[in-house]
Amino acid sequence: MKTSTKTPRRRFLRSAAAGAMGAGALAAPMVSNAQTVSLRFQSTWPAKDIFHEYANDFAKKINDMAGGRLKIDVLPAGAVVPAFQLLEGVSKGTLDGGHGVVAYHYGKNSALALWGSGPGYGMDPNMLLSWHNYGGGEALLQEIYKSINIDIVSFLYGPMPTQPYGWFKKPIAKVEDMKGMKFRTVGLAVDMYTEQGAAVNPLPGGEIVPALDRGLIEGAEFNNATSDRILGFPDVSKVCMLQSFHQSTEQFEILFNRAKYNGLSAELKKIIDYAVEAASADMSWKAIDRNSKDYAELKKAGVQFYKTPDAILRNQLEVWDKVVAKKSAENALFKKVLDSQKAFAQRAGQWQNDYLVDFKMAWNHYFRR
Predict the structure, then answer these.
(1) At 92, which CATH number?
(2) Which are the contacts of 144, defined by CB distance < 8 A and separation ≥ 6?
(3) 104 Cα distance to chain centroid
(4) How far apart are CA 147 and CA 108, in angstroms?
(5) Please, is 331 exposed, middle or buried when counting C-beta atoms within 10 Å of its C-beta (0-12, 13-18, 19+)?
(6) pTM for this model (two decimals)
(7) 49: alpha, beta or left? (left if phi > 0; alpha if psi -120 to 50)
(8) Looking at the domain assignment, is residue 90 inside a domain?
(9) Fewer Cβ atoms within 10 Å of its own Cβ: the N or the C terminal residue of the chain?
(10) CA distance 72 to 302
(11) Which helix (H) or strand (E) holds 253?
(12) How many CB atoms lie within 10 A of CB 93?
């Protein structure tokens, strides 16, 4: 009887494969055996705001993708540090991370407001994110943080819709209507509204409506229909002026304490990268759905919406030019960021303006007959 050599060979191959699998298992242990890294985050928003919801959405994506190896808990504004002290809290390690906007750090270096304030040379928020990720903005932001001794890892995401000019007691018909008005805004918008004659107070989001109610301020802007409705703006004002250049390019910022971030494995860092991108897309889609619903609800509640007059919008651009000329002369980093944005906007804006069709024409065709 002829002896077959196939059986021993197959046994050898199976044994070799099992050995290889065993070695692989040792090199990459199962998730269930890995220790969970827990990080404590704080947002810059009240728990009821949709912005805090976005922070929770990001954390959930991390928690789901990491499969138990990384867990982020998000606290609302003020839980550990005041809303506008988030940057220092994360840098010093009081918090492991946070969720806010770059423009809130304006007081530490005026150049930080350029990630959100102003007309962005005609860029929309998503284009500004493109500049940040591909046009040199990320390196410039790191340079600014280093100059003010802030040691964090920053991720920008989530392009915001254009913000209203503001909520008022009566419609704003001309620039002169802003003279002497006690008004709330933040970032370089402080300088813009001040230049238009307003007396500006940069209050945190949760303090705006109470201040309007008590008459401490006479007008204010925050961000979007959903946030404005949740914060209670329609309870204290029935007039909202839509469209503005004061904050037409803003996005969110996710912060990590650098030591905490550096202590994570390469795989968890990559999960964070992809979670930021996923959260950015999801936030954009959710904003369209929720903002449009709440816009309709605000109208039902008796809020009167008016388009900001073109004369005021043109004045904003003129005022912006004055503000940035002054800031550029005072701050070399400010000018460096501005020059980088301008070069990117000239190229990207030309492409977008030439390529995009007028969507309003199609909407009018179907809904305004």
Answers:
(1) 3.40.190.170
(2) 109, 111, 112, 333, 337
(3) 11
(4) 10
(5) middle
(6) 0.87
(7) beta
(8) yes
(9) N
(10) 40
(11) strand 251-257
(12) 12
Two tokens, residue 209: 């409506």
Show the low-confidence residues of the chain (pLDDT under 70). Answer: 1-34, 369
Q: Chain centroid to CA 258: how far? A: 20
User: What is the structure's pLDDT at 34?
Assistant: 61
What's the full length of the chain, in residues?
369
Domain count, the chain: 1
Strand arrangement of the beta sheet that strand 199-200 belongs to? 199-200, 182-184, 219-220, 166-168, 239-242, 304-307
Strands in 70-75's sheet, in edge-to-edge order, are: 70-75, 37-43, 97-100, 251-257, 152-159
- Let me know if residue 274 belongs to a domain: yes
The answer to whether position 356 is within a domain reads no
What stretches of 172-309 show up as alpha helix (H) in DSSP? 189-195, 205-214, 225-231, 233-236, 258-262, 266-300
CB 334 within 8 A of CB 327: yes
Sign of CA dihedral 325, 329, 332, 334: negative
Convert the pLDDT of each residue in 309-327 to its tens digit. Answer: 999 999 999 999 999 999 9
- Measure the CA–CA gap between 262 and 79, rounded to whole angstroms: 25
